[in-house]
Design goal:
Chain lengths: ~230, ~230
DNA sequence: CGACCATTTGATATGGATCAAGCGATGTGG
DNA sequence: CCACATCGCTTGATCCATATCAAATGGTCG
């Protein structure tokens, strides 16, 4: 239930570079991105809750978890961010969640003020900012819906979500641990593990390795997913 | 667990009027609001999930619930909207939730295109749109955090939220039923009712009527709320 | 007054949490 | 290269918070 120990937390001041060519279909693509590419170790904190939100981030490679911790140590993971995802964008001046790299991760870091200034001048940039937040809102609502479902339904929904976001074909490699999945789904590791075993037993998936998922019967998962 | 029967659903075409003087500190206040004031009966549908999102709404009086229903009838209430709150604003062209009046309710209805056009021309309007969505996102994240807590903690958090949003002093009247509260908190009516009784027994609140709440020991509730 | 609906309260059932081993992969030092 | 510690995961046994089922109570409106 406890978050992993934090490793080095560095302010985003590493090698300042001209950003890699922005992909134009991406949501931050409309911005003229000048930022730093930063690497983070496994479990390294990218920012903490209530810290000043001076930067906006985009995952280049790896995976990020965004979470909150209650006084007694319970951790709720609000979102996983995967390559291409933008995160850390806030309306206010402080981050509302903490963010950590799940695996070795590189992110593109852009000053928030650059983005806000651009939005003031160009309406399509403003619309992109709105769009990013609206997408997060939809994901959050979807996530809320998850949390009223049974363990089987939650795990099935999680697998389908991950399959859409990182599957090439029918199989994929999970970047996150069982504990991360549990804290995302509001379950314990034991229940996540048991449920995956059940799904394997029911021939809905197979688990050639603990983090490797093969979808064997997607319609069975779909049936569990509303 | 079932949503109440829907009553008449009318498209927003009633008495078209110049909007009442917009309150300037309000988030839609920056817009030059021209819209219709529309009344809705108790339990009347304002819009349904997947319907075209042609209008944006602002509660003038009454209360609104925004919810999703799963195939098997489980209902998740995403948000309650109270006087002053704006709702129904979507980035896409369709509503992602249904909305119903909880009590007799009047709302101000504004064409979405008016708002979007204004946002394209004026950056402070664009920022207001973003701000509205960001506020919803924060509430959604707060709500997600609720759903991993115990029944007592959920109910305490709910009471504190409602107290902030509609209390004059230390007491307030809930507009919504126990079923609505249950579907918001991911509990059953029985658990909600029992938990309220417990809190009354513990002298944290008193319940002079089933929908009237008096906060008797706010710090006791705060202690339950992270 | 009587019907209806919302709410409370009581008795029992159950899904997932908790407690407790065991297991397999990975890495480290001898 | 192997013994052994560590870590992430799985599996088993038991417990408990909340759901479910059932009934009583109370408030509202005709």
């Amino acid at each position: 239930m406890l978050a992993p120990v934090q490793e080095a937390r560095r302010p985003p001041e590493t090698r300042h570079v001209r950003a890699a060519p922005p992909t134009c279909h991406s949501l931050l693509g409309a911005l003229d991105l000048t930022g730093a590419v930063m690497p983070f170790d496994r479990n390294a904190e990218i920012y903490g809750e209530n810290e000043p939100a001076d930067y906006v981030y985009k995952v280049i490679s790896g995976a990020v978890r965004s979470y909150k911790v209650l006084h007694d140590g319970r951790r709720q993971i609000d979102a996983f961010y995967l390559p291409g995802d933008v995160f850390g964008l806030e309306l206010g001046d402080e981050h509302t969640c903490s963010a950590e790299a799940i695996t070795e991760t590189t992110v593109l870091v852009v000053r928030r003020t650059h983005v806000l200034d651009a939005a003031e001048r160009r309406s399509e940039v403003a619309r992109n900012l709105w769009s990013l937040t609206a997408r997060d809102l939809r994901r959050a609502q979807h996530h809320t819906l998850l949390l009223i479902k049974s363990a089987q339904e939650r795990v099935a929904a999680f697998l389908l979500e991950m399959s859409e976001r990182l599957a090439a074909g029918t199989a994929f490699e999970l970047p996150m641990s069982r504990q991360d999945i549990a804290d995302y789904l509001g379950l314990t590791i034991e229940t996540v593990s048991r449920t995956l075993s059940q799904l394997e037993g029911a021939a809905a998936i197979s688990l050639p390795a603990s983090r490797r998922i093969v979808l064997r019967d997607r319609s069975a998962l779909d049936r569990l997913n509303d």
